[in-house]
Amino acid sequence: MAKGLKVLMVSSEVFPFSKTGGLADVVGSLPSAIHNLGLDIRVATPRYKSVKVYGNEARLNNDVPVYFVEHEGYFMRDNLYGTKAGDYPDNLDRFAFFSKKVLEVLKDLDFKPDIIHCNDWQTALIPVYLKTIFKDDPFYKGTKTIFTIHNIGYQGLFPKEGFPKTDLPWELFNINGLEFYDKVNILKGGLIFSDIITTVSPTYSKEIQTKEFGYGLDGVLAQRSDSIFGIVNGIDYEAWNPSKDKALKHHFSSANIDGKYKEKKMLQRDCGLKEDVNTPLIGIISRLVDQKGIDLISQIINPLLKMDVQFILLGTGEEKYHTLFGRIKRKYPGKASTNLRFDAVLAKIIYAGSDMFLMPSKYEPCGLGQLISLRYGTIPIVRRSGGLADTIVEYNPKTGRGTGFVFEKYEANELFGAIKRALHLYKDKSAWRRLVIKAMKCDFSWEGSAKRYVELYKKLKTQR
Hints:
Elements: E1 6-10, H1 22-35, E2 40-46, E3 57-60, E4 64-69, H2 72-75, E5 82-83, E6 86-87, H3 91-109, E7 115-119, H4 125-131, E8 144-149, E9 157-159, E10 179-180, E11 183-185, H5 186-193, E12 196-199, H6 202-207, H7 218-223, E13 228-230, H8 258-270, E14 281-285, H9 294-305, E15 310-314, H10 319-331, E16 336-339, H11 344-353, E17 356-359, H12 369-375, E18 379-383, H13 386-391, E19 405-407, H14 412-426, H15 429-440, H16 446-462
């Protein structure tokens, strides 16, 4: 049934052509996994300055066609969405143009998809256009839409004076349309007009229907609860593979983990930590913002570093945290390493060389860090939220069940308790080794997620 299905996936960023965050990684990997299941899937994305290919088409992993939408004025800029000063003021113009152009280009390509799979607010006008200004065009008859929310905190909010830039009729600017507290909400349009809504984990799909996590759209989502599905993101197991990762000097696998500890010693040496393979090393790679639980870490970092433990941090974010962790590095020489930058190579070495990986997020739609850390045998310590709740199970020392350490309440002492449980188990070298090997055998590759998406595509295709 899946064979013969035609799918267009649309995203404002696609790795390796453009990237600001996890969305690019998802759309850089998922289409290939779907293609491997026999579907004709293609991708559309803006042609930014960062796109270093000739012509208007490239391929993902040599198999999935990628079409680039061009506009010199809108997309040939140094950044995708804005500068340090803030978002580009014409983002509504840019992504309204992109969404409409994608639909028009399909005719030029003579590619009539059964499903258009949209991602985040930058593509949310596509379902709206299909059911309004394009609804009488026979070319699009029968084309259905899936809309995936990667983070509901980003909604595409603009002053209502900008509404005409969408080319939509004013009667859609109301409480049952794209109006949101007297502003234009592009994401809301996608939620109302798409045929199916997905998000990046089952728990997050429920969380966003609550006031706490719905960012004002919980009511809209609750009305569509029968059409909302949560599918956990995967990771590319070729790109994240400790047995042949080019960023690592020492390779390892679940069959032989010795290279992990050689990598640990090298990480300690290169980052100014005391070289000692027996001292537990806790890693964190994160944006330094409250959403990621950095405020909880800041409350426990001093008592934590008074214990027999080392801590390495990589990331950038709020100035107050740059200051705090800079001070921590000076206060605990040989025990704390603070790296306030983006560094893709160091990130891989931290995943490989750390013993534990911290993700105490206030909310986390899916999270990729915990999946990568499992792949590299680094045990996650997480808060039960969103995708973290769906992928990490609390380790039970009696049964051996579980893959990490989980805390519930968003409180510093709860986080500290989870870290202490991990440190306690770490003392039992044979139990810890078994847990590391078990973690590395977990499978969060894209294949399982791709099958779930294909099921939804088939379901939509058969709907009248």
